[in-house]
Design goal:
With 171 residues, the protein is of the alpha/beta class. It has a single domain, classed as Rossmann fold, CATH 3.40.50.2300. Helices cover 44% and strands 20% of the residues.
């Protein structure tokens, strides 16, 4: 909403098979209620499903796109980014590599940090700690990445306050 206040509808691409997709969609629905944004879901398992959903969604004005973290979304990221740009749909993606591939913006966990933590856990186990005693950890660093070239192509003027909150701005 801060990037494009005209958005009143959101299409959420998610993987219907992945249980985490249910949780992600539920969280989006909860947030959307307080923002008075209409939410609908679509699958992202194949090219035809993606094209059909985005083209149909783009027929009405004031729409935005959320791509959740899923394997199909990552596999079809170039198609999703390209179609969203062609259809002038502002989109937010789950990982930095979407924004660096031409998507408008991403907000998600740092994808390198889990590998660093895994190495630390291996070291701890090799030094005698029991794996069952090690806590389960979730990501601690989330990054907001903004692609200004994509914003300009969509005709979106990014507020300076939003730019200041971004962890990375891609020119």
């Amino acid at each position: 909403m801060q990037v494009d206040p005209r958005i009143t509808r959101v299409l959420v691409f998610r993987d219907y098979v992945d249980p985490s997709g249910v949780g992600q969609f539920g969280a989006i629905q909860t947030a959307a209620e307080s923002l008075r944004v209409e939410v609908s879901a679509a699958g992202s398992r194949d090219k035809e499903e993606i094209e059909h959903a985005l083209v149909a969604f783009a027929r009405l004005a004031n729409g935005g796109l959320i791509v959740t973290a899923s394997a199909p979304g990552a596999v079809h990221r170039e198609l999703i980014i390209t179609l969203a740009a062609q259809l002038k749909i502002p989109a937010i993606y789950p990982f930095r590599f979407y924004a660096s591939s031409g998507g408008l913006m991403s907000y998600g966990p740092n994808t390198v940090e889990p590998y660093v933590r895994a190495a630390e856990y291996v070291s701890r186990v090799l030094n005698g700690e029991k794996p069952a005693d090690l806590p389960v950890q979730a990501p601690t660093k989330y990054e907001l990445v903004l692609n200004m070239k994509a914003a300009k192509a969509l005709g979106i003027e990014i507020l300076p306050t939003f730019l200041a909150r971004s962890d990375e701005v891609i020119e």
